[in-house]
Amino acid sequence: MKNLKHYIYIVAGLVWLTACKPEITTFKPSHGNVDFTRYIAVGNSLTAGYADGGLYLSGQENSYPSIMAKQMQMVGGGTFTQPLFSTAQANGSGYLSLTGFTADGTPITTAVTSNLAVRGVLPVPGFGNVILYTKYTGDNNNYGVPGIKLLNITYAPYGNLNGYFERLLPGNAPTNTTDYLDFVTAKPFTFFSDWLGNNDALGYATSGGAGDVLTDKNTFAQLYSLSISKLTATGQKGVVATIPDVTSVPYFNTVTVRAILAGVQKANPSVQALYISALVSTSGTAYAPRPATASDLIVLTFPTSKIGQPVSTPYGTLPYGLTPYSPIENQYVLDQNEVALTEDYVSSYNSTIKSIAASKGLAVFDAYAFLNNIKKNGLVVDGINLNSNYISGGIFSLDGVHLTPRGYAIVANEFIKAINAQYGCSIPLADVSAYPGIKFP
Amino acid sequence: MRKLLLVVLALTPVLAFAQGFQVNLEGEKQIGMGHTGTGILQDGASVFFNPGAVAMLSQNYVQGGISPLLFKSDFNPSGTSIQNQVANKVATPFSFYAVWGPKSSWWKLGLGVYTPFGGLTDWGNNWTGKYALESLDLKAIYFQPTLSIKLADFISIGGGFVYNRGSVDLTRAIPLSNQSGQDGQAELKGTGKGYGWNAGIYIKTESGMTFGISHRSQVNTNINNGNAIFTVPASLQSSFPQPNQFSSSIPLPATNTLGIGIYPNKNWVVAFDFNLVSWSAYKALAFNYTQTTAALQNTYSPRNYQDAVSLRAGAQYLATNKLAIRFGGGYASTAVEDGYVTPEAPDANRVYVTGGLGYKIANRLDLDVSFEFEHLMPRTQTNIETQLSGTFETNVYIPGISLAYHW
Questions:
Q1: Domain at B19-406, CATH from 3.30.200.40, 1.10.3720.10, 2.40.160.60, 2.60.40.1180
Q2: Contact: A431, B73; criterion CB under 8 Å
Q3: What would the pLDDT profile of A203-260 be if each residue is shown by its tens digit?
Q4: Closest approach of chain A CAs to the CA of B91, in angstroms?
Q5: What is the ipTM of this complex?
Q6: Do the Cβ atoms of B130 and A383 come within 8 Å?
């Protein structure tokens, strides 16, 4: 009997040992005096969780608003519902998938075209074709609409021109008349994040300054002021973000003039320069050919195989990109003057954002400074070495503009830090290492 | 043209050795007394604690003991409520000693086999710091033949040769995920060896106090041709050639100890040990791979350890002829400077308390049990290399048992 008692003590002792883990509480989650009951996210593709050149279910699930909302729920935040694609149509708009590398290390991407949520194509006279997606009905907290500009938020017919917005509206295009700002503020909310304005500059930049225009600075300021007034109409608190320097993304830094020229010179050492069609002056609209320099940014989607192909010109058949008479076309190049022009606009937009946010006492995530710093210095988080390089950098997805889940988690944490700092609350940070980067075959 | 060089992934397997890796479990009698044993005579464990004292042992010994060790670490990433805890795994440091010499002779031979360094931490593949470390299983077994000589009735000296057989098995996640979102993994697995020596002196004074001084040398342990196993998505495997080997060298530091024994009456022994561990020898950790690529480079990580001290005290009370009660405790300073703390052995200043019982089962047979609780102070750190930022706190629980036969 006595022995048995000893055994019981020993077993009880061992159980106590395994149960007795240290626990550290350095951080007390608290919402301070902020009400996170109904958080809404206002913004564009970045807010929607767009990645790899498309909007699809797994990207939506890793959107920065959903990551933030999960963290907010630890301090009393409410349910956060997103307009997710169904599992049957999980690939949404379709997206790019990395399927391999060529022998020289060039990544091969392949479009995913199965299980899409495309319901039709609507030709809009004078605008073009609008792809329509399966409607989302039900509660919604994430109003991220890929492609939307600040310029569009009060335009009533916009619901007929953007399939991602149309998808959220009850009516079918072309009968929609609710503008974006009215739509997102229709239902009461207690907290918001607002990251609009990127496309007002990015649309111009990604098209090499050819397919779009920069939103006028004053128009931007008026619309920004209007939208923030409306979002804070009943005293809601919120967080806004500045617009990244368009040149901080790999879309403009991966295919470089130097790399293309080096490739050409390997085959033909006599080639001295690449020629581009460049903006002559930041104050004008005239384009003229000139030799490309390192300050001219070639877009990620430029088909480099075009270089050297015969082009018929008034001066005869000439190799593409290698003579002033057959320059690389405008839409593939954000040339030095276009860069300067874009940067000037972005810097004006950002002054607007910061001063309006300050006047309303809103938290600000300075995405401009943050992404520029990553471009310059890289970022090490939890033992992961990240930078702004295409694919290998780990932050940007395969389209070179939007982020990986890991990139979105990093952004969500920056938003949270800004909210915590501004409002004295303590939303716990997300675990960046738990979110994946690029998926390799 | 859109050529992509996968950047250097800074694959630096961070094998840190800290006080956390100094095991200090080399004899149950001594553990019970707060790890003191350099300035007193207890049993064959003197081979480890002070080879100079071996010749003063009045008997011959064969003994063995084991101290199953539970290392319970918690990591709380900064700005979160997340608790990352190591898995329940039991490490098994052990010690074996044999001491023999002719009755009442001026010399004795000894052999010690013990585990002065080691570590077993398993954080799993799902925690915040997985890219710094998933798990580490590290063992160093020292084999030490020893000769001790009594120069006079009050003084003896001794020395031993040390052969170390070390083994390491380290895994960490690589931030390259496959199509299902699973991380890659690096595993470094190998064995190595090293050599060293130790020596000591033992003095009995007329006042009855005893003194011991011992030196255990640095043991540079070289691992050659360890297996470097990289599991990465197939399209990147050529950047991580397989099979591949690594080599590395790690200095296991020298330790200098001064011990004192005081005997208030015939039932009491009080002992003090003061240790200086020369961790400053550990400047950097370098790994060289047999095959390197643009993504997999040889690595060199600064460690810049500082020397550490530990202060130990303990006592033994003979309750009856057959039963000894022991207790003790101590303090050890950390070898790891701010910015260099890693999850392998999240080192910090530590305190410990110990207790033990010794029972004479028979005239020539001792059974000793010991228990130790060790607490590593919470330490909030951002590692310079990984930027892993948060607070570590660790408790260690070590029961132990040994049998000693003496004649």
A1: 2.40.160.60
A2: no
A3: 999 998 888 999 999 999 999 999 999 999 999 999 999 999 988 999 999 999 999 9
A4: 14
A5: 0.88
A6: yes
